[in-house]
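On clarity, I found the account of how folds are encoded harder to follow than it need be. Since the whole study asks how a given chain folds, the encoding of that fold should be made plain. The format is easy to grasp once an entry is in front of the reader. For illustration, here is how one protein appears when written out as sequence plus structure tokens.
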Amino acid sequence: MQPFSRFLVYFLAVARHKSIRKAAEELRIAGSAINRHILLGEKQLQTPLFERLPSGMRLTAAGELLYGCARRWGKDLDDLNRQIDDLKGIRRGQVDLLAPEALSRTFLPELVNRMKHSHPGVILDMNIRDNRQICPTLLSGEGDLALVLDPEETRDLVIIRRMSFPLGFACRPDHALARHGAVTLAQCATYPMIAPEQPLALAAMFTCLMEAGRIVPAVAARANNVQMIISLVTTGIGICFLSSLDVMSEVARGDLAFVPLVGTDMPHLTLALVHDRTRQLSRLTHLVGTLMGDIMARHAI
């Protein structure tokens, strides 16, 4: 059932695509019909909602206000539908989970697999985002739960579960470092390294550690993508500074070894499962949060 008027449906599509033509393609409606409803809506509201530019449609200040309200209305409707589903029992529904790329190969596949076995009618929508975008996206109403790395403390979030992962160096299993249970930064300094680059959160940490230890790393390559770094290590280009979370799958398969760094005040990577404090979680979202918390607890060190 579509609870919104045709005007609002058309308005949202044009706002998303910034184009009447693209909105028409999505909705399979004639562009002239969409334009007519937009014009009628602007006439009724007595204000333009879009600037009509050669490059497309751009929201006016009034259009931005309506767009924000309409998205909240849509999220409120989703919440209502989920609460109604709760009254019927958890047989179907959808939970939107925001997460960084680092979790796409470890925790999330396990979560989907467990949900499919226990509640096959439930859909988990995995939205992989840049870690810096996750909390703002969640608070804007675009997600139900979020997994975020090193979250800033904020009163707008409720932390369901938190865990930490040691930082260290990943290397091939036949590398000399792999024989150690733990290493210092000085022990790793002479080996060729793949250095992490921005926007990876580890890039700044790597630089700080090297500067604090007055170490000039033997950089063999640089990369701003964890999977690219892991691929370079696997082919023997060098060792890399990562967290145990980043290489959990490769270590479990025996493709890589991970050796944690030891030293005074050595930082850890923190992973937190959070939700928006202002939103009432549905029974289904609670269930997914509990399952995710169990998976995190099982991998906790």
Observations:
- The CA atoms of residues 19 and 56 lie 5 Å apart.
- The chain has a mean pLDDT of 87.
- Residues 61-88 form the longest helix (28 residues).
- The chain has three domains: 6-68, 90-163+270-299, 164-268.
